[in-house]
UniProtKB/TrEMBL annotation:
<keyword id="KW-0812">Transmembrane</keyword>
<feature type="transmembrane region" description="Helical">
    <location>
        <begin position="351"/>
        <end position="373"/>
    </location>
</feature>
<feature type="domain" description="Phosphomevalonate dehydratase large subunit-like">
    <location>
        <begin position="12"/>
        <end position="416"/>
    </location>
</feature>
<dbReference type="Pfam" id="PF04412">
    <property type="entry name" value="AcnX"/>
</dbReference>
<keyword id="KW-0472">Membrane</keyword>
<protein>
    <recommendedName>
        <fullName>Phosphomevalonate dehydratase large subunit-like domain-containing protein</fullName>
    </recommendedName>
</protein>
<keyword id="KW-1133">Transmembrane helix</keyword>
<dbReference type="InterPro" id="IPR007506">
    <property type="entry name" value="PMDh-L-like_dom"/>
</dbReference>
<keyword id="KW-0408">Iron</keyword>
<keyword id="KW-0456">Lyase</keyword>
Amino acid sequence: MSNTTTLDQGTMRLSEEELAMLRGDKGAAVREAIEFQIQVGNFFGATRFVPITHAHVMGDIEVMGDGGLEHLRHMTDQHASCAVPASSNAQCMHFHADPRMTQDPGEEEKEKDILSRYKTMRIAATDSCIPYQTVYQPKIGEHVAWGDTGTVIYANSVLGARTNFEAGKSSFAAALTGRTPEYGFHLDAARRGTIHVRLQAQMRDFADWGALGKIIGHPNQDYFAVPVIEGYDKTPMSDELKHLGASLASYGSMAMFHMVGATPEAPTAEAAFGGAAPAASMTVTDADVQAVFDACQYKDGGSNIVVFSGPQLSLYEMQSLSERFEGRRVAPGMTAVVTTNHMIYSDAKRLGYVGVLEAAGVTILQGVCFYILQRLSKIREENGWTNLISNSGKLVNTITAHRFNTVLRRTADCVDIACTGELR
């Protein structure tokens, strides 16, 4: 890292506490963290830091690689400890005995090393990409430092908290210093709406919300684009907004949206736009949503897999799936996979949902999201999987890098496909 006597603070103006960190008064790990954050702040033109209340760190061996693991080891060797409560995002290792999804033993040991170092740093290894549903729900106006695009867009939009997409190293640095540079979605200006969306579609399923995210996000790929959705006459549930946000972040790299009358900074469209005129407008109908499904075509040959993941499932999604699979079996030649976090798995097991799903032949993976599984491309090849069918708009977009042919379908259709083997 840079020498503290010569580090250019640039646009950043530091408090006495931050200057003490920069001098090394709080240890080498904190000094290196704030040096890095000053560089980030300078790049984005920030003038100061804002205190945060919570950090959600990005750290698994598939994402971090060996370089990231060495950085984590370096921090723990310097006795790094989080200044604020911190949780961890989904991991890439499922630690599950399913022979269809074997993972590299050497990489598995690295993942275990990461998890053990979390403990020494006071990072709660929640292994969850839905911390807003199970771990911590920041309040409106509360500054946090969260990694994972789906967590960030939910925090900004649904909870009214303030965070940018914090990269892996940035999220760890924020956890150590208890602050983050004030730029982007920490500022009022970035949070104002820019795109007016008139929603006329009925929105019958989670997959519809994912399709809506594609319709809005794909033609408007801009981190600072903020859709304002108006016209929906119901109160959307947390899981519906979860699927919408994850899809907007995946297709459009967006970090925030407003839904008039539903999200906290959009009591009216005028309030959501901050008095400014929208830069663009669009209308979304049932026909537009159906066109997204119709565009998903199956490929012949090979086996197929149905995946409920991306983001991890909530307790109510687990309940609903167990009801849909009860008394049925996954068809020969088909695979069905569910991912959730440890807390929800524990409750779902106690309530009987896990037992029903496993009796139906569904594989349940804890603490992971499917698309970041280590050696996933090889797993696809080993199983001869051709089509991946899911009700997650995010998953069918993100996982194409692993050369699946992805198909978005509504939840009931996904269950029927898994249990009949018929590609509907």
